[in-house]
Amino acid sequence: xxxxxxxxxxxxxxxxxxxxxxxxxxxxxxxxxxxxxxxxxxxxxxxxxxxxxxxxxxxxxxxxxxxxxxxxxxxxxxxxxxxxxxxxxxxxxxxxxxxxxxxxxxxxxxxxxxxxxxxxxxxxxxxxxxxxxxxxxxxxxxxxxxxxxxxxxxxxxxxxxxxxxxxxxxxxxxxxxxxxxxxxxxxxxxxxxxxxxxxxxxxxxxxxxxxxxxxxxxxxxxxxxxxxxxxxxxxxxxxxxxxxxxxxxxxxxxxxxxxxxxxxxxxxxxxxxxxxxxxxxxxxxxxxxxxxxxxxxxxxxxxxxxxxxxxxxxxxxxxxxxxxxxxxxxxxxx
Length: 334
Ligand SMILES: Nc1ncnc2c1ncn2[C@@H]1O[C@H](COP(=O)(O)OP(=O)(O)OP(=O)(O)O)[C@@H](O)[C@H]1O
Prior knowledge:
Elements: E1 2-10, E2 18-27, E3 32-36, H1 43-50, E4 56-63, E5 66-67, H2 73-82, E6 83-86, H3 100-108, H4 117-130, H5 147-159, E7 165-169, H6 177-194, E8 197-201, H7 205-211, E9 214-219, E10 222-228, H8 229-234, H9 239-246, H10 294-297, E11 303-305, E12 308-310, H11 320-326
Helix pairs in contact: 3-5, 5-6
The structure holds adenosine-5'-triphosphate.
Adenosine-5'-triphosphate (ATP) binds near residues 19, 41 and 45.
């Protein structure tokens, strides 16, 4: 459904760094890929580039087998019929003066199958029902909606043109925890019912674990690991993935050990090191082990490791011996 190859992104402006460096991934139809990584790692930039809101300076994006060229109107139209982006703040995407009904209908009128007001009303009711809202909500205005209801309306809008791929950027981050669960359930049901494909951006790894079948770990615009979700969470191979997972308080560490936090800042994309981007904070790299200077000098390529792919010169192999390696002094942990 989505194929991204060797994507490179640099925002316009003098001396701006390359924020996404050679990122490739694909999502099969009906699949769900989670993008994880700290703030600034480039997750939102990738989603924005897919819909033409961030400049693609290298590489290619194809949706449903068709290469996307944002400069061509026909390509843009085809893209908007197939791909929709849902943001964190649903109210920001709703005009306070437009009713819910008008806001949702705006998203689909003009589409090929809607020509009469009866069809408009029918489709509107169908969309509201799909997101779990009564038809009477069409009369409401954004100020009369709770955060969760507003996000349901934003999702209904996104579904208006029957897209096949949704880009979900922190869609529950602004909601109360109890409401988050209901939105996640809704998204999972919609994926099953409508056969949707998801690209999910979430700080909260539990969300990725719940919604996605695969996950990709980014740091400073570089992919460090990519694997099936169960594999990534149970047997992280990149030390950064391992530290990220251990730093989630509500998520049990795979081996039940004490939780660690990743401290210090990721590298600024303007000063990305020539070696591994995680070296300065790595608990198993050259700061702790002699003979690992290659981490400083050579960027490890993303390479197959079992069923996963990992960009690390010394990946965790999940044999007993390798676990001991990771248990080396952990000065980056608190
Ligand atoms: N419009 C922009 N113009 C210039 N630089 C930008 C712009 N948007 C993002 N950046 C830069 O691109 C890099 C990646 O940012 P991005 O927002 O994609 O990261 P992220 O992983 O989604 O972070 P967060 O989780 O905080 O949203 C950062 O260095 C950021 O400063």
